[in-house]
Amino acid sequence: MGHFPGASGLAVKEHDFKKCHQSGFCKRNREYADNAAAQKSTWSSPYNVVHDSISFNDGQLQAVILKTINSEGATERFPLTVTFHKSGTARVTVDEEKRQKKEITLRHDSQARKERYNEAEKWVIVGGVDKDEDAKISHQDKDQVNINYGPDSKFEAVIRLSPFEVDFRRDGESHVKFNDHGLFNIEHWRPKVDNPAPKEGEEAAQVEVAQKEDESTWWDEAFGGNTDSKPRGPESIGLDISFPGYEHVYGIPEHTGPMSLKQTRGGDGNFEEPYRLYNSDVFEYILDSPMTLYGSIPFMQAHRKGSSVGVFWLNAAETWVDIIKAKDSINPLSLSTPKTTTRTHWISESGVLDVFVLLGPTPKDLTSTYGELTGYSAMPQELAIGYHQCRWNYISDDDVKDVDRKMDRFKIPYDVIWLDLEYTDDRKYFTWEPHSFADPIGMGKQLQEHGRGLVLLIDPHIKKVDGYSQSSELVSKDLAVHNKDNSIYDGWCWPGNSNWIDCFNPKAIEWWKGLFKYDTFKGTLENTFIWNDMSEPSVFNGPETTMPKDNIHYENWEHRDVHNLNGLTFQNATFQGMVTRKKGELRRPFILTRSFYAGSQRLGAMWTGDNQAAWDHLEASIPMVLNQGISGFPFAGADVGGFFGNPEKDLLVRWYQTGAFYPFFRAHAHIDSRRREPYLLGEEHTAIATAAIRLRYTLLPAWYTAFYEANKDGSPIIRPMYWTHPTEEAGFAIDDQLFVGSTGLLAKPITKQDQFSTDIWIPDEEVYYDYFTYETKKTQKGKHLTVSASLSQIPLLMRGGHIFPRRDIPRRSAASMKYDDYTLVVSASKAGTAEGELYVDDGDSFDFEQGQYIHRRFSLDQSALRSTDAEGRDTASLKQSKWLQAMKEVYVDKIIVVGAPAAWSREGVQITSEGRSWPVKVQYHPAANGKAAFAVVGRVGARIGEDWSIELA
Amino acid sequence: MRPNSSLALLNAIYSFTLAAAGSLPRGVSPEFASHYQNKDQFTCITNAAIKLSLSQVNDGTCDCPDGSDEPGTAACASIDPLSPEQPLPGSASSTTNTSNVLPGFWCENKGHIGAYVPFSYVNDGVCDYDLCCDGTEEFGHKGGVKCANKCAQIGKEHRRLAAEKRAKMERADKKRQTMLSEAQELRRRVESQVNDLKGDIAALEARKEELVRKHQEIETEEKSKVVRGEKTGSGGKLGVLVGLAKARVEELRDTLDKVVDQRDNLRTKVEELETILRKFKEEYNPNFNDEGVKAAVKAFEDYAARESTASSEDITEADIDSVLAEDTETNGVNWKEFEELKQAGDTDILYNIEAYLPPFLRSFIQSKLDGLRVWLIQNGMLADNHEPGTESALVKAAREAVEAAERDLNNKRKDLEREGGDLSKEYGPSDIFRALKDKCVSVDSGEYTYELCWLSKTSQKSKKGHGHTGMGNFNRIDWEEADDVERLDGRSLGKGKRMVLRYDDGQQCWNGPKRRTDVWLACAETEELWRVSESEKCVYKMEVGTPAACEPAEKKEPSGKDEL
């Protein structure tokens, strides 16, 4: 069948989506680049900074760039702002004066705004933009201005005036260069002149210019039977950004393909097309492709040994990024090997040019600084990091209850069951199919008994039908997106003819919020959460399955300007709704989104959309999820099992073993696929899947701690090798193995059929133990370690030097583990030391913001094993919440010391806590048969929230 | 190792266990009591070498590799093959991949029935009253949960329902007896009908033979008359016939010519449509899940599959061309030859006509001309020239008598076949389903109404219209092991061997197999369709109660079909 992979090799209808040459502005800018390259040194960028226009105040430089637009020397004016922030970032913004002042006319009597869109920051930037008042001009002459800024003034921006260029340096060395190759381009406004009858000779000069240029892609542009009226004509922006000496660039999700981005200008193994960022519902997407997908984060990091730098391109319009990696010419006198420089070319259709430059120098600095700008990943609902059971569709409330009971009967833990589209009455959101879901409250309550949740799908298209209050209100209150004629836009999606809520409109958000109140959305309970799908937005009959670009949003911004933000604004409106469901109730929402932009991490989780039940899709999921992590949106996962098609049993269990390492762990299936709940696999395979899910659950305290780190400083939840080991070059392109948070757990899930062993790349000299057997692995830094991996085995190592928390009692759900005792696993380093953390809060409220949490730091050295408050807090004065009080009865049950130093070879130890001291039994097992020595210490009986110490001396 | 007082304080919650349940630690069932009666120390049940102090029993940490030191806490629940494996020296496998020697936490449930609760459920903050009505498994009050003892109430309700269920089952068994005798009566009726039919058939056969003989006699007598009549009849009609035939053939040829044109026209249209459909099939987006589109694509695929396997045309273009070509001396019918044959014996020529036809035409004309003629008549292109044969009234009457007798005989034989076949058909143990023949039960479930017709078919009907969908036709009866939770309302398959009626070969599923239904039966007072589930795509499971599935007083093992 057509849409099952493998059967006919069918994939995405590639011709449904634009290639660069089919997107006028991309084509023009690529040609601009080709032209510049062809002219080599004779090419001169026509943009020059007017020296006298430069002013510098309070960390901000302002100037005017003049663009020479014809041979007569006519110019256009572009205001330039370069801002230096306390966070160490620099921001370069370029606008166009004529549009800024609205001194233009629009075609087709369009009512769209005349200015370049400059409100993306309103949705995206939440901090890190306090001006660096210590930034200062260190040098200025007629050619350039040097500004020192950043921590200890180690950063420097060198702004060249003719042509306009910026060179960002750290410690005197260039790391990021703007317009180094002269591709900076802002298409200035010009009127369309209908040949051959120019209107009464006005603006003759411009007519002349226009006639010289190729206008074929300037005006109305057609693709796939849809015509974009482009009332403002050509208005793209482009800029080349070079990273001298950097061979690897990462980021700019969402794409398939390797984490280390490929070149895009053709050649062996390279892409032919630029990476595209234009959020789209891409049906049956293909792998290893620069094609656009559902979401976009225009944040790119460049990495080389010992240094990371990044750029954040704040623009919500359709964007393309070309990447070229060039070997620097060899200096014959130099003995060092030639370095590679990565050159990128950024092209957006409209809006102001607005770029942030981050100078690192570590990957952690980048993710943390980027998070400061766009926000950190939200603390999740505790149940959201457990296992999610989804299917399009569970067909009735009875069906849901039956699956719920069966999961218990088969002893498979899970936390959330999902309802796709078909729970609604005729695809009207906020309603229930009256026959199949006659008793949603009864269903919700059964789930609640075990602390489980229900997720309902709510999409942004509202069925246009009589007698549906959501539809009539949307229309009567005028809260929907408009078409180019400024009346309400009609399109087709799941429910047939629909209208789309415009969540850029504060009134629309207000209205949307009201729809989630328990009294309004009958049948929902405190354990109901939301899934926002199709929010690119997906429009079945629209150009490239989305909205026409000349549609008009709130305050008359064109859809073209805001497209990539649409999903974020929708999720934001839902988020607002979820926190105001009931007066006085303030709980963390859980909202899954398919479409996203920089900043979406503050609102919930994402998944990689409609993948396929195929081995290559399983394999591709790991780099995709890793890439989300380093791009500031780490709460990510792929559909376990693959959405389209029917996975074989071995594929499905391997996918569970992989999914247990996705931050977002959900199984999902297409409506035409066979049932595949894990208990249906048959005894042997069900047992393997169950063990993988239970592995996730025993490690939930470690996962939650990793989520906390992401929330605190933007650290990825699962981490690629370059991020944890930024100086090990051999690891820079590795994207099929990962560390879980700071636990030292190194996993390499099997993603190939009939593969029963794998090679794990070892990044350092530290000792590694097998997670399941405590075997000491014979590892060597920079070499691969072969480990066996029968179908029931997950390649998982413990790096020496870490301590991580576990909860070992198999329970039915995360909620039912809430007050279980902890096991601490100490993985001793070669030096016999280890450290680690535990963060835990109530997993539900925002009380943690008031200090209602436990944050421990555990450390082992030669003399003692200790637990101390990780933040050195004095919590004595804290008025304890109900949860924190209940946690007083939660203890450390046992401590397992793997690779236990000889000091642990004893009958017992003395533990001291809360002013008391008592003996604890130790079972010491000396190293044998390749297994490391290990000690099991217990029952420890110390409260998890209190300081304690075990002296070994 | 004895804990000092502070540890005892910390673990108070666990150690008061010993006092709470008399002399036995919490969670120990009578079955295992003997292992916990030593007053000095505790010995792990299957690891006699490991001896623990009594304070280590139920102290919330797992010390015995068989889990036996924690009968009253969840601490040893991770000793389970389904949990991620960890080293566990001393266990059977030296890892946690082994089984806990204890079946669970024992809830005494005084006033009701004692039961084991899985260790995983102990102190998880959920009152599992269905297993532990006394609430003792939540003794830790995790997160403030308090499970009050509800055994009095639950036990009473349970006893009431159990009594009700027993009564129901008794009534069901009585019903079953009634059904059995009904079924036997029905079978007896069929048997007697079969016997009657056999008698009727014998009689009819004799009568038919007699009539055939009579008919032959009369016919022989009449034949001679006919032959004589022919001889005195025609002589020179052949010329006329040839003339008429020639005109007729021309006419037919013209018509065929037009039909061929029409066909070519249609063929072009079919090709055009097929091209459209092929493109449609390749380019539609199944993710949009439009039922109409899916059905159309499926139908086209079936059509395409059928077309590709259908045998090629049995008449070639060359054949048609040759028929359409003008008759000449070397092609088609050589009319001239006929016209020259003046007074030759008409009969000879008629009998020889095939000799004048091209070889392929002989068989072709024989097999196709009739069909073409009928088609032409039906489409009004040819008049119905059929004339009734000449047959004397006498012969006719005799023949009709034979035919009538034959018809009667055939009907009786068919009846016998049906009724006899019915006797050997599967009607379950003791033919009990005879009592349900032609009866149906249905249930509303969500958007659909499901219907089971006993030994006939299963179907679903959407409440939104869309008509019936066949979910299978009865095929056979199997037995399978059920493993469901017993329900006090009796509406459950429970545990044990159950009859499963297989309904196969239902309506084809989109992208899947033909629908089928497994109808699981359990004992109930009346016929009731309890629930329908889609165990996997297009495979349905119906759970159905019926007295027919009740166990007879003396338990009968299921065996072959005919148990009469």
From TrEMBL, chain A:
Pfam families: DUF5110 (PF17137), Gal_mutarotas_2 (PF13802), Glyco_hydro_31_2nd (PF01055), Glyco_hydro_31_3rd (PF21365)
Positions of the Glycoside hydrolase family 31 N-terminal domain: 79-322
Record-listed E.C. numbers: 3.2.1.20
Keyword field: Endoplasmic reticulum, Glycoprotein, Glycosidase, Hydrolase, Signal
Ranges where the Glycosyl hydrolase family 31 C-terminal domain occurs: 714-803
Domain DUF5110: residue ranges: 826-863
Region (Disordered): 194-218
Pathway terms, separated by semicolons: Glycan metabolism; N-glycan metabolism
UniProt superkingdom: Eukaryota
Domain Glycoside hydrolase family 31 TIM barrel: 378-706
Class of this enzyme: hydrolase
InterPro entries xref list: DUF5110, Gal_mutarotase_sf_dom, GH, Glyco_hydro_31_AS, Glyco_hydro_31_C, Glyco_hydro_31_N_dom, Glyco_hydro_31_TIM, Glyco_hydro_b
Annotated catalysed reactions: Hydrolysis of terminal, non-reducing (1->4)-linked alpha-D-glucose residues with release of alpha-D-glucose
Localization, UniProt: Endoplasmic reticulum
Family of this protein: Belongs to the glycosyl hydrolase 31 family.
Protein's name in the database: alpha-glucosidase
UniProtKB/TrEMBL annotation, chain B:
Ranges of residues in domain MRH: 438-552
Residue ranges of the TM segments: none
Coiled coil: 162-221, 249-283, 395-426
PROSITE patterns, alphabetized: MRH
Signal peptide (residue range): 1-19
Sorted UniProt keywords: Coiled coil, Disulfide bond, Endoplasmic reticulum, Signal
Official protein name in the record: Glucosidase 2 subunit beta
Organism of derivation: Bionectria ochroleuca (Gliocladium roseum)
